[in-house]
Amino acid sequence: MTPWSLDRYRAELLAQTGLLRALVRDADPAAPVPTCPAWNLGQLLRHVGGAHRWVETIVRTRATGPVPHDLVDEVFHYGDHDMAALDTWLDEGARQLSDALDRAGPDARVWTVVPGRPLAFWARRMLHETVVHRADAARSTGARYEVDAAVARDGLDEWMANATVPEAYDTATGPPLLGAGRTLCFRATDDPAGRWLVDLTGTTPVWHRVADDAAVGDAAVTVDSPLADLLLLVYGRPVDGRVDVHGERALLGLWLERTGFWLRE
After folding, report:
1. Which of 237, 255, 261 is nearest to 34 (CA)?
2. Residue 208 is inside which H or E element, if any?
3. 265 pLDDT more than 60
4. I want to staple 106 with a disulfide (CB 3.0 to 4.6 A). Which of 6, 19, 42, 194 is the partner?
5. Superfamily of domain covering 165-264
6. Which CATH superfamily hosts domain 6-145?
7. Angle separating helix axes 41-60 and 6-24, nearest 10 degrees
């Protein structure tokens, strides 16, 4: 599917950051984060805000190559005790990024981790970084996690697109992913628009959204789950809802492992 406009991604980024801030406003920053066990809640939020600031630097400076990402990774020296100050810091980072994207405009060219992508790549990436880490924060605080269907669908579209990069299927970086008969179907049980078909039978992975089950054919493995849980599944997060897997579970496991390579870097 065609990605959204830069302005829509900017608006959604601010909205999702607002939902994250509201979720943790009265929480304990020292609370553990079960889905990111190396971090406490304050460090998780520092990671999110640091990611926003890292991308803001890339966009503001029109970087043509990689930019140091200390703000994203080096969160362990923080000893946050004031959630109000952290809330303000999160808000400032998201707004600074949104403003930098707005000033640059959709036609600006900057370095992207997947080469050759437009500026909206970064707005989209930071949106879904925030969406998934909001799920981590909800797990930490015991809150219910919900995500807008359109946002979740776009998050899965982004994952499918990034899953076609060579690192995901190159045999030099892991076990073979491509092969005859290897197709996967992901179906959202609560969203008729949520159908994805992944074809691994060619020389490179191909994916597309399908309109209905008739367009799927006989996939080697089919995954049925609520939409939000499909998003969490691909990101390796616990799924509270029902996930039904039909067919070759081993293929699903391999695909999840190979396409999630960048989460482990």
Report:
1. 237
2. strand 206-209
3. no
4. 6
5. SCP2 sterol-binding domain (3.30.1050.10)
6. dinb family like domain (1.20.120.450)
7. 160
